[in-house]
Amino acid sequence: MVTRARRAAVAIFLGIVVAGCSAPTPPPVPSPAARVETSPASPGPVPPPSQEPSPDQVGLGTDRPRRSAEVVAAGAADAVYNYAPTLMVDEGRYRMWWCSQLGGAGPPGDDILLGDAPSPDGPYGNPLSAVFSGNPGSFDGMHTCDPSVIRVGGTYYLYYTGAAGNHANGNAIGLATSPDGRTWTRANDGKPIVTSSRDVIRANTYGAGQPAVVHLDGWFYLMFTDTTGKAAGWNGAGQFVIRAKDPTFVTGVELLSPGGFRKANGTADRLRSVVDAFSVDFMWVDALDAFAIAHETQDGTTITFWDRDFRRAPYLPVLIPGPWQEGPGLVRDPEGHSPRSVEAPCDRVPVDLVRATRTLDAPTDLTHFGADLTGTRACADPDRALRALEGYAVPSPQRTIDLIRDGRVVRVERRSVAERLAVRVLDERVVALDTVPVAARLSAAATAVRAGARVGFVLDDDRLWTIPDPAVATLNSSTIATVTQGQFDSYERGPDLAAAR
After folding, report:
1. Which of 337, 344, 299, 346 is nearest to 318 (CA)?
2. How confident is the model at residue 75 (pLDDT cuts 50, 70, 90)?
3. Burial of 26 (0-12, 13-18, 19+ CB in 10 A)
């Protein structure tokens, strides 16, 4: 059964779509009643932004389109529906948290499930369990849904929509933390971190929710829906952005306004929306030096781009086509950045996502779609090349290998050592790196020290660059000297030489 507010929003929107398009758009499939209160009215396809392309916007190509042969989440016998995924490539595995409703998971309402898989195609059902459910008596007493999960350091952060019951304007955004992504503790004393602004009363009374979060340069960027926000569309569609170095957004909050980010007391203002859509996900793309926002449009998932200050759209939108019913979850790295192409980090960016393609056919309906962005020219200049090649290595002009770590060039004498430390050693030199100074050199037989399980090289910059495995030092013909923990800690530290794979 669909609520009256949802029926009204759907009817109004479909009238506009039919009048403005050459062919009618089929109405969306109704959602289960319990789900209505934690998803905004999704009134069919949302048209792309009306902003005219500017002459300096770059057009990206796409190739290698892909789609899973089957649904990717195995579901469960008592699952009513599955939607609103968030995905993370975490230490070589793909982890997906998503929203469902399990009869035995706790209070009646939406639950957050977790599954992992060896690839985006799943299946995400080994193991499958509800890892987060309602907390009776709190703002999220009945429904916990729309997860967005990142990992910063050793802590997982779960941003989610919570509601105490089936009532208008009941949705708010909460936060929980975890050491493993499975066992969660509510943050901010169990109180919401973002609530409805209630600036405008609209037919769509969903309120605040559907968060998506990215960690970039020490900042937590939070994007979310608020159908009551001043700058939301006529039907409540819109996406607002706040940022803070505090993951709870209690202190140091900056709000995105028409003039850029500005300091604010609290999170209440809704002065600017960055995309006219519900249920979006976003990520930071280092190769493009831009945010990519995934949102549903008539023919599939449209990806739009903004620079880091949301002042300029540097690239034209691209489309990942195919059927959809509920918004996408992008495959991202632990901090919400896009994975890079192992094969061609300078020229392409893989974009993979999971979205719901139907809502009534339980136990599952989540499907993987994807394509590669091409023509990125990510290594056209030194700054972008350093970002795109983070963790990679390339031939140097001196018959050695240049390893890119933490935005620096480390010149490694032995290719075999570089191969152990890098994501991959590329076959050809990247010309843009010729003007980048060498920060340090790792010569054969360089000094290596150990304290307990920790091992590192002391390079020619007199800093200690740690390595993950003593075998790397052996491969480098380095003798490992045992030192005290105090001596080990007294060295000025360089970055870890090993890249995340």
Report:
1. 299
2. low
3. exposed
One-letter amino acid of 183:
T
Count of CB atoms within 10 A of residue 82's CB?
A: 27
The DSSP call for residue 58 is B
Backbone angles phi, psi at 190, to 5 degrees: 75, 10
Which residue in this structure is represented by tokens 């089929």? 26
- In this prediction, residue 17 has a pLDDT band, given cuts at 50, 70 and 90, of very low
pLDDT in tens, 147-187: 999 999 999 999 999 999 876 567 999 999 999 999 999 99
**Beta carbons within 8 Å of 352's beta carbon, 6+ residues apart:** 66, 87, 120, 330, 331, 339, 368, 369, 370
Q: Is the dihedral of CA 490, 494, 495, 496 positive or negative?
A: negative
Residues 110-154 pLDDT 10s: 999 999 999 999 888 766 668 999 999 999 999 999 999 999 999
CA-atom Rg of the chain in angstroms: 24
Q: What's the order of all strands across the beta sheet hosting 438-442?
A: 393-395, 401-405, 408-412, 438-442
Provide the residue count of the chain. 501
Q: Is 388 exposed, middle or buried (0-12, 13-18, 19+ CB in 10 A)?
A: buried
**Residue 18, helix vs strand vs coil:** helix
Q: Which domains does the chain have, with CATH numbers?
A: 12-48+59-374 (2.115.10.20), 382-490 (no CATH)
Task: For tokens 């056919």, name the residue.
Answer: 361
Burial (Cβ within 10 Å: 0-12, 13-18, ≥19) of residue 203: middle
Mean pLDDT is lowest, of 42-46, 88-92, 124-128, for: 42-46
What is the DSSP secondary structure assignment for residue 4, as one 8-state letter?
A: H
| pLDDT one-digit tens code per residue, 330-384 | 999 999 999 999 899 999 999 999 999 875 555 568 999 999 999 999 999 999 9
Band (108; pLDDT cuts 50, 70, 90): confident
Lowest mean pLDDT among 50-54, 75-79, 110-114, 164-168: 50-54
In 3D space, the residue among 77, 136, 137 whose CA is nearest the CA of residue 106 turns out to be: 136
CA 150 – CA 86 distance, rounded (Å): 9
Q: Contact 193/209 with Cβ under 8 angstroms? A: no
Side-chain-side CA neighbours of 391 within 13 Å: the count stands at 14
One DSSP character per residue, 79-121 reads ---EEEEEEEEETTEEEEEEEE--TTSSSSS-EEEEEEESSTT
Q: State yes or no: pLDDT of 480 exceeds 80.
A: yes
